Amino acid sequence: MSTAIGQYRYTKDKPSLLARMKRIEGQARGIQRMLEEDRYCIDIIQQLTALSGAADKVSLLILQGHIEGCVTNAIREQHGEAHIKELIETLRKAMRR
Question: Out of 44, 56, 68, 80, which could bridge 74 as a Cys pair, Cβ 3.0 to 4.6 Å?
Answer without folding.
Answer: 80
